[in-house]
Amino acid sequence: MVPAQKQMEVLCRGIVDLHVRAELEERLASGRPLKVKAGFDPTRPDLHLGHTVLMQKMRQFQEFGHTVIFVVGDFTAMVGDPTGQNDSRPRLTRDEVMRAAATYQEQAFKVLDRERTVVRYNSEWLDKLGAVGMIELGAKYTVARMLERDDFSKRFEEQRPIHVHEFLYPLLQAYDSVALDCDIELGGTDQLFNLLVGRDLMPRYGLRAQMVMTTPILEGTDARIVDGKLVGKKMSKSADNYVGISEPPFEMFQKLMLIDDAVIWRFMDLLSAKSNEEIAQLKADVYAGKNGIITVKEAFAAEIVTRFWSAADADAALERRRNVAKGGLPENIETVHLNVGDRPGIKIANAMKEASLAPSTSEALRLVRGGAVYIGETDLPDAATKDEKFELQKGRSYLLRVGSKNRRFCKITVD
Fold first, then answer.
1. Structural domain count, the chain
2. Of 170, 176, 301, 333, which has the fewest beta carbons less than 10 angstroms from its beta carbon?
3. Cβ neighbours of residue 64 closer than 8 Å, sequence gap 6 or more
4. 363: Cβ–Cβ under 8 A, 6 or more apart, which residues?
């Protein structure tokens, strides 16, 4: 085993909560491989970089020779985790959960070492609890302790419903640790309460309490630094600020390049395999003018694309990006056919909305008025139009470019 102090340096990087550091040092110093658990409720099949922050920590434990248990919450997913919810979640069926679990695991193994990962389904032990076991489990915790959770306490104060099964969720997750007799449980910062319930519960079953480690919740690609503070929603598909780990290499590369220059260091701290010292040196070189932030971002984007695809894919994405940046047309520009029926054409803003070049006609109009929309018919559009009344004529094809820095292209044929 790698010396305990060296393991501590790596394993504690990026960690927010650690209960308790002295216990972790003691168990690592014993030289015994630890059992490290992380649970995942497969409520949806798509994974993004935000999910991989926790998985990378699991991978680090694997590389130090510890046993990592990937717990598929097929039972708990049907109950529904109320964490962070202002209202109770709709319940899922077993079939829905198992379908999501299949693709979830396959994507997870892009980060985890498949050969060194133990996969367990918590229905293995939770199905066997039965009514008597569930009552005994409930008897080991109090309602007062449950109401210490922020989401429960807020709903209670506002006199909004809290269903009994929601109180059961933290206990069921905690029982996973009892069933597996784990040394450590990992989770995001939003899971801290649930993880600590597991730490509290284990001694009540005669087991040594697990340690708890939480990783940060990664912000989305639209995060910014405002007054010295990082501001932005967490990465999610619903907020459209995510980088999916199964996205095509070029799309992944482009999204990473759109991260704000000041925020890229946050992404590197949580996702890059570079050491703290290497990242600190890169930052110092940028601030000293020895290196450009674009070069740093390109290297980071290439690292991430290589991790989920290949070095060849990363090189191709970088070359394609640089070609576009020089003014060249990107490959495989999407072609959209707009059917205008009996009308002679379609207004530019409406066409942009229909072609997904803008989320709404009002946003499209704003882009047109700002001179960010370029229109051509055969070659690269080189002239902006500020004419919001411009109409794309029926029977003709147009090449549209939106933006001058982060450019988007689309070929529109009006039928």
1. 3
2. 333
3. 1, 2, 7, 10, 11
4. none
User: Both 301 and 404 in a single domain?
Assistant: no
Q: Rounded to an integer, what distance in angstroms lies between the CA atom of residue 91 and that of residue 80? A: 6
Within this chain, do residues 405 and 369 fall inside the same structural domain, yes or no? yes
Does residue 330 lie in a domain region? no
- For residues 150 and 168, membership in a common domain is answered with yes
Q: Judge if 27 and 110 occupy the same domain.
A: yes
Q: Are 174 and 196 in contact (CB under 8 A)?
A: no
- Cβ contact 160:87 at 8 Å: yes
Backbone angles phi, psi at 252, to 5 degrees: -60, -45
Are residues 210 and 183 in contact, defined by beta-carbon separation less than 8 angstroms?
yes
Same domain (yes/no): 196, 71:
yes
Do residue 353 and residue 314 come from a single domain?
A: no
Distance between CA atoms of 345 and 329, rounded to whole angstroms? 26
Residues 304 and 404 in one domain: no
**Residue (of 244, 200, 299, 238) closest to 84 by Cα position:** 238
Give, in degrees to the nearest 5, the angle at Cα 337 between 331 and 340: 155
Last residue of a domain, which of 277, 303, 325?
A: 325
Please, which residues have CB within 8 angstroms of residue 257's CB and are 6 or more apart in sequence? 297, 298, 301, 321, 406
Tell me which residue of 237, 218, 240 sits closest to 52, measured CA to CA: 218
Distance CA(204)–CA(371), nearest Å, equals 67
DSSP state of 307: H
Asked if residues 175 and 201 have their Cβ atoms less than 8 Å apart, the reply is: yes
Domain that holds residue 283: 248-325
Stated pTM of the model: 0.72
List the chain pLDDT tens, one digit each, 415 residues: 799 999 999 999 889 999 999 999 999 999 999 999 999 887 666 789 999 999 999 999 999 999 999 999 888 887 766 665 544 556 677 788 888 888 888 888 989 999 999 999 999 999 999 999 999 999 998 888 888 888 888 888 888 888 887 888 899 999 999 999 999 999 999 899 999 999 999 999 999 999 999 999 999 999 999 999 999 999 987 787 899 998 899 889 989 998 999 999 999 999 998 988 999 999 999 999 999 999 999 999 999 999 999 999 999 999 888 876 665 666 668 889 999 898 999 999 999 999 888 888 888 898 888 888 888 765 545 456 778 888 888 888 888 888 765 677 888 899 8
Is residue 46 in a domain? Answer: yes
